Amino acid sequence: MARYIDKILQPGERVLYSTNEHWMFFLPAIAAWIVAVAFLVLWRFFATDAMALVCLAFAAVAGLAALYWTATAWFHRWTTETDVTNMRVVHKTGFIKRRTFEMSLDKVESVDVNQSILGRLMNYGDLTIQGVGEGTQTISTVTSPLAFRSAITTRPVGT
Predict the structure, then answer these.
(1) Which CATH number is correct for 15-22+81-153, 2.40.160, 3.30.1460, 2.30.29, 3.10.20?
(2) What is the 3-state secondary structure (H, E, C) of 62-95?
């Protein structure tokens, strides 16, 4: 499947920077997988059938939750694109219900980065783009937000 940005590029427009949602969306799924494996390991240590069945039941529930969270996190990352071209900033999210915004680089007044402590450690954050006459747009949980901001604010020579 072709990327959204490839479908909407104008003549002479080229992609300067692309980023995606951060992998931290997978953290609930990872935690649930760890819990499921822990219950499976615990199951082997119980001699009584009742406790072993309880462990297997908890492992099954945790495994189903982990599978669901893995699928939803993957789908969210797969359907979200954020790009900077030499003419505009483009953000698209969603598959059937799509939300997009585009802002001309000439209209960008400021780009603010908001990172928590965990965001700084794991290199993700939220971007708030203020446009002249365009309003404010926020892009959440972007990988490498400082590099993304630099791609927006740095003007290449000759454009």
Answers:
(1) 2.30.29
(2) HHHHHHHHHHHHHHHHHCCEEEEECCEEEEEECC
Categorise residue 41: left if φ over 0, alpha if ψ from -120 to 50, beta otherwise: alpha
Q: How far apart are CA 73 and CA 80, in angstroms?
A: 11
> In this structure, what is the dihedral angle of CA atoms 142, 73, 137, 86, given to the nearest 10 degrees?
60
> Within 10 A of 82 (CB to CB), how many other CB atoms are there?
20
* Contact (Cβ atoms closer than 8 angstroms) between residue 17 and residue 149: no
pLDDT single digits (tens) 37-78: 999 999 888 778 888 899 999 999 999 999 999 999 999 999
- CA–CA dist 103, 106 (Å, integer): 8
Identify the DSSP state of 45.
Answer: T
pTM over 0.85: no
Place of tokens 């908890």: 58
Q: How far apart are CA 129 and CA 126, in angstroms?
A: 10
